[in-house]
From TrEMBL:
The lineage of its organism: Eukaryota, Viridiplantae, Streptophyta, Embryophyta, Tracheophyta. This is GCK domain-containing protein. Residues 64-75 have a biased composition (Basic and acidic residues). It comes from the Eukaryota. Residues 1-67 form the GCK domain.
Amino acid sequence: MKGGGCKESFIAWEKCVEEAETNKEDVVEKCFKATSMLKKCMDAHADYYEPILKAEKVAEEEALKELEKESGEAEKSEEESSNVEKLEKEFIIDVAKL
């Protein structure tokens, strides 16, 4: 990263991250601007940074898949809970009829 056209942006980003970690600050919030500048620079020099940009895209897609999977599992769990509640109510009604 320190060898391409985004050397200065990368060094600024790296310094920001180190400062945030040292001061126990939120890295995302503190370094948003530095991260944006680095990303824009990398996009502008995509020929040089292509392997990194591809790896970043794959990682982003994997994270989205994992979030969707977790979201689907949460919805399934809620649906199962709802079904259990319905069965319990039906059971209570059936027992009350006895």
